[in-house]
C-alpha cells in the first residue's frame, strides 16, 4: 500500500513538473518579447527596482517561512535566466558590449623598455627576461607601484609584476594596484621558484640568527625556517634585495632567502639548497601595458567588479558566467577602502573578448554590478 501511495505521489510530481516546464517556456517567450521591446527603445536589460518589486510580490504569495524563502530563490533564478536570454538576443541585434580593447597580431617588442620591481637577480627580473628575451632593455624600480607609474607616464612600455604564487597565493597588493592604475594585462609568464638560504662566504648555518626575504618567500619556506626557532625572520621588498643586504651589511649572523642566481650575483654562499616546501612552487607574473590591446588567440580574460552589498549579489554576478557556459579559472576578493566589510572581486575566465559567450557574460555583469572593469585579455 505504501509503494502504491509513493507511486501516486511521484505521478503527481511528474504532472506538476510538466506544467512547470510548459509555464517556464511560456515565460521565456514573453521575456523574448520584452527583449525585442528593449532593442527598439534602448532600455537596459537589468531593472533592479522592477525585480525587487516582483520578488516581494511573489514571496508574499507563499505561505510559511520555508516556502517564502524557496519562492524567493526560485524566482531569483528565473529572472537571472531571463536576463541571460535577453542579453543573448540583444547581442544578436548588434548591441554588444564596447570593451574598448583592440585585437593585435602580436605585442610591440621592438625598442620596448621593460620595468620590474626589485634589483638584479630578483624573480621579477627573471620573469622579464624569460618573456622578453635575454637581450631585452630592462630596468628596475623600488616598488610595484613605481613600476606601474613608469608605464603610465611613458618611461616604460611594459611592467612585469607578480600576481599569484602556487603555494602562497595572491600577491594582494598588486590586485589593489590594478584598480588604482589605468593599465592593462596583455600577457603572463610563469617562473619556477627555488629558494636557497644564502649567507656570507665562510658562514655556516650555526652562525645564523636573522633571516631576510620577501614575505611571500618567507611563507613559502616557513616549514624550514620555523624549524629553526633561534632565527628571527624579517620582511624586505624582494628576495634579491635581501641577498644584496647580506652582502652590504657583512654580518655573518644574517642570511637571505633568495634564488641561487641572486646568490651568485651578490657573491654569497649557499647554506642550504631548495628550502621551499613546495618543490613545484611557481609564481605567475603579469605583463602590463598602457594600451588596451589583446593578442589574436588570447585565451584568458581578467575582470574586477563590485556587486551590491546584499545577500546573493555575488551569486547573481557569477550566474552570468554559468548561463553563458564560461569557465571561471580564478576568483579573488579584496576589501574596498573606506567601506568596511565590502569587497571587490577579481575573476579570471577562459575565453577571448571576441567570443559571443564572453561578450554576453560581461555585458550582464556590467549591467548588474555597481561597477566592472576589464583588466585584460591575454
Overview of the structural elements:
By secondary structure, this protein is of the alpha/beta class. Helices cover 43% and strands 25% of the residues. Strands 2, 3, 4, 5, 6 and 12 form a six-stranded mixed β-sheet that branches. Strands 9-8-10-7-11 form a five-stranded mixed β-sheet. A hairpin with a 7-residue loop joins strand 15 and strand 16. The longest helix has 40 residues, at 2-41. The mean pLDDT is 92.
Spans where pLDDT lies below 50 across 5 or more residues: none
Number of helices: 12
Which percent band covers the strand fraction?
Answer: 25-35%
* Secondary-structure content class: alpha/beta
Radius of gyration over C-alpha positions, nearest whole angstrom: 27 Å
Rounded mean pLDDT is 92
Main β-sheet description: 6 strands, mixed
Write the H/E string, N to C. Answer: HHHEEHEHEEHEEEHHEHEHEEEEHEEHE
> What fraction, in percent, of the residue positions are helical?
40-55%
Terminal residue distance? 64 Å
What is the number of strand segments? 17
The gross shape turns out to be: elongated
Map the helices and strands.
Layout: H1 2-41, H2 48-61, H3 65-92, E1 102-104, E2 113-117, H4 123-132, E3 137-141, H5 144-152, E4 158-165, E5 169-170, H6 172-180, E6 184-192, E7 195-199, E8 210-213, H7 215-220, H8 222-226, E9 232-235, H9 239-249, E10 254-259, H10 260-265, E11 269-272, E12 282-289, E13 293-295, E14 300-306, H11 313-322, E15 328-335, E16 343-350, H12 356-368, E17 371-377
Parallel strand pairs: 1-13, 2-3, 2-4, 8-9, 8-10
Antiparallel strand pairs: 4-5, 4-12, 6-12, 7-10, 7-11, 14-16, 14-17, 15-16
Helix pairs in contact: 1-3, 2-3, 3-12, 11-12
